[in-house]
């Protein structure tokens, strides 16, 4: 293993034997610039400040002599030969991520509940998707209107992308995913979009509030925190209609078993007193649970999704319990 420090951010990560600097950086959740991932474009160029490069993989991009003299190298084509200090800019906000259009293939579709499918796409190795956890993309299928969907997977692997799709008879996109899609089907990805992203400079405990398939962007955020080896506590509240639709139960349970700083609380609408329960009643139960667990929220960051108007009462309760408005991050568009 080699330790690599990126300046000027000062962040450090480990590279396994035979792993390129770029592969190690992405696995560790570093938001570094790259594009082709095969040594053709030069966008992942970094400067070696100290240490040694172990092996240069074949690449087409050619540095000028004065660039070589400055210590420039391609992160996607170099393995570390020792501990290293390198200089590379990092992507700090959604505005820094370029718009991309990628032709992807269906890798597989998992039937996780009667009315929910997990769609997994695979991009070409030479054109993986760069995005920040919490963002969404637009999916294009020939003959159908474009559909925006939150990415449910970690940015640490932009070649395999996950999306959660709930069935609706009125939704042509959902009907296609459930009834017509096949492995290797083509789908065009455009994006990423959105500013619902992680505050990576915060060291405060985090609360994630998801509704239904809105678990998708929360899953991406949580996996990114894991890749960053974040040490602050994380608590996921997931609101679902009934236990049959709690389709990631084993997944979140495995996170709680594996991580000392992660807990989750499911909120089931079927446990409500009214039949069927109203949305307002369900949100009230969710609010009561959160403020019971955390009576004072001034030292927390809260990430939640759902229509802002329908969650107004929940937002008000959190603010009443001293949550600063600038630490409440809301994904209010329905693209999950």
UniProtKB/TrEMBL annotation:
CDD domains membership: fer2
Pfam family, one: NAD_binding_1
Superkingdom assignment: Bacteria
GO molecular function, one term: oxidoreductase activity
Sequence ranges assigned to domain 2Fe-2S ferredoxin-type in this UniProt record: 2-92
InterPro entries reported for this sequence: 2Fe-2S_ferredoxin-like_sf, 2Fe-2S_ferredoxin-type, 2Fe2S_fd_BS, Beta-grasp_dom_sf, Cbr1-like_FAD-bd_dom, FAD-bd_FR_type, FNR_nucleotide-bd, MRET
Record-annotated FAD-binding FR-type domain positions: 99-199
PANTHER family from the UniProt entry: NADH OXIDOREDUCTASE HCR (PTHR47354), PROTEIN RFBI (PTHR47354:SF5)
Protein name per the record: CDP-4-dehydro-6-deoxyglucose reductase
């Amino acid at each position: 293993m080699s330790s690599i420090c990126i300046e000027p951010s000062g962040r450090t990560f480990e590279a396994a034997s035979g792993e390129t600097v770029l592969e190690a950086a992405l696995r560790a959740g570093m938001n570094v610039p790259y594009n082709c991932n095969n040594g053709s474009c030069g966008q992942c160029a970094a400067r070696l400040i100290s240490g040694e490069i172990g092996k240069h993989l074949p690449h087409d991009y050619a540095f000028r002599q004065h660039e070589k003299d400055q210590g420039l190298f391609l992160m996607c084509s170099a393995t570390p030969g020792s501990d290293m200090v390198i200089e590379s800019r990092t992507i700090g906000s959604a505005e820094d991520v370029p718009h991309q259009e990628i032709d992807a293939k269906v890798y597989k579709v998992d039937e996780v509940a009667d009315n929910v499918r997990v769609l997994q796409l695979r991009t070409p190795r030479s054109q993986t998707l760069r995005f920040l956890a919490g963002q969404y993309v637009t999916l294009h299928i020939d003959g159908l209107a474009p559909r925006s969907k939150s990415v449910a997977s970690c940015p640490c692997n932009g070649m395999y992308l996950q999306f959660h799709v709930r069935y609706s008879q009125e939704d042509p996109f959902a009907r296609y995913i459930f009834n017509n899609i096949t492995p290797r089907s083509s789908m065009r990805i455009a994006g990423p979009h959105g500013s619902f992203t992680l505050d990576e400079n915060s060291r405060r405990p985090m609360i994630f509030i998801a509704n239904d398939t809105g678990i998708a962007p929360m899953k991406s955020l949580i996996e990114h925190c894991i890749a960053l080896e974040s040490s602050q506590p994380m608590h996921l509240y997931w609101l679902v209609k009934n236990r049959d639709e709690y389709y990631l139960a084993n997944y979140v349970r495995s996170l709680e078993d594996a991580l000392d700083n992660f807990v989750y609380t499911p909120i089931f609408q079927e446990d409500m007193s009214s039949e069927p329960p109203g949305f307002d009643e369900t949100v009230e139960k969710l609010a009561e649970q959160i403020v019971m667990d955390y009576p004072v929220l001034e030292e927390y960051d809260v990430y939640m999704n759902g229509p802002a108007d329908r969650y107004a009462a929940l937002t008000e309760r959190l603010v009443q319990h001293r949550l600063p408005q600038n630490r409440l991050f809301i994904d209010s568009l329905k693209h999950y």
